[in-house]
Write a structure and sequence with these properties.
This protein is α/β, with parallel strands linked by helices. The chain has two domains: 137 residues, Rossmann fold, CATH 3.40.50; 61 residues, Winged helix-like DNA-binding domain superfamily/Winged helix DNA-binding domain (Arc Repressor Mutant, subunit A, Orthogonal Bundle), CATH 1.10.10.10. The protein has a five-stranded parallel β-sheet with strand order 2-1-3-4-5, with helices on both faces. Helix 1 links the parallel strand 1 and strand 2. Helix 7 packs across helix 9. The radius of gyration is 17 Å and the shape is globular. The termini are far apart.
């Protein structure tokens, strides 16, 4: 039996994934969480072989969770299930320690195959991601400026690009507005931009949102 946990801040999404995985007789959902603190609590009380993890969560992001699991040498295998486009985030997640990446817009039944593949110790790659990895090996193309951003800086960029105010971002990330303002300043400096409007344009042009 493959023990699976779901970590996504949207209960409706978790239910959809849970209903999909219920079709597989060899998969059992052992816990759910809507944030990193909840995930930590659930992991203490239930077994987990494969974690289905969203990237965009309140407080610590999915990439932060990947880093934490990696630092503790956790045996849990992680499949990132996100709405963000594969060409911008899949490779980043794999480098951070994920064993696979699936888009929420993909065929739900593919999740069952992904969970089984990861449980068996293999990477789960869609054809699109496999092609990107192949191209990154064969070609030395210059990296986009946003690839130098830290996870918090990237989160700040994405939330600004979707029209959120600094106070709203601070509340969602459980940070102080002053800290978020510092992240914003760093993003502007690293990307060579001047204001939120330019940040939004950059995010759209680079298909980050």
């Amino acid at each position: 039996m493959i023990h699976v946990m779901l970590c996504d801040d949207h209960a409706v999404v978790r239910r959809g994934i849970r209903d999909t995985l219920a079709e597989a007789p060899d998969i059992q959902i052992t816990g759910e969480a809507g944030s990193y603190p909840e995930l930590r609590e659930v992991l203490r009380s239930a077994p987990c072989d494969v974690l289905l993890l969203d990237l965009n969560m309140p407080g610590r992001s999915g990439l932060d969770v990947l880093t934490s699991l990696k630092e503790t040498d956790s045996a849990i295998k992680v499949l990132v299930v996100s709405m963000y486009p594969e060409d911008q985030y899949a490779v980043r997640c794999l480098r951070a320690g994920a064993q696979g990446y699936a888009n929420k817009a993909a065929d739900p039944m593919a999740l069952i195959d992904a969970v089984r593949t990861i449980f068996q110790g293999r990477k789960y790659l869609t054809p699109e991601v496999a092609q990107m990895l192949a191209e990154s090996v064969s070609e030395r193309t210059p990296e986009a400026p946003h690839t130098t951003l830290s996870e918090r800086e990237l989160q700040t960029l994405l939330k600004i690009a979707t029209g959120k105010r600094l106070s709203e971002i601070a509340e969602e990330l459980t940070l102080s507005p002053k800290t978020v303002s510092v992240y914003r300043s760093r993003v502007l400096e690293k990307l060579g931009l001047s204001n939120n409007a330019e940040l939004t344009v950059y995010a759209i042009r680079n298909q980050l949102v």
